[in-house]
């Protein structure tokens, strides 16, 4: 999976592309 920068997100927004994001965490290390 490629890394995403704020510049690439801005470029996608200007080109009116949809942006999908997924955030997850490990419950046991977050506690």
Explained architecture:
The protein has 31 residues and is an all-alpha fold. It has one domain. Helices cover 42% and strands 0% of the residues. The longest helix has 9 residues. The radius of gyration is 14 Å and the shape is elongated.
Quick description:
The protein is mainly alpha-helical and 31 residues long. Helix content is 42%, strand content 0%.
Fraction in beta strands: under 5%
Helix content: 40-55%
Query: Which class of secondary structure composition applies to the elements?
Result: mainly alpha
Computed over alpha carbons, the radius of gyration is 14 Å
Map the helices and strands:
Layout: H1 6-14, H2 27-30
Labels describing this entry:
about 30 residues; mainly alpha; 2 helices; about 0% strand
């Amino acid at each position: 999976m490629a890394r995403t920068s704020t510049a690439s997100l801005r470029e996608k927004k200007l080109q009116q592309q949809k942006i999908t994001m997924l955030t997850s965490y490990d419950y046991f290390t977050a506690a």
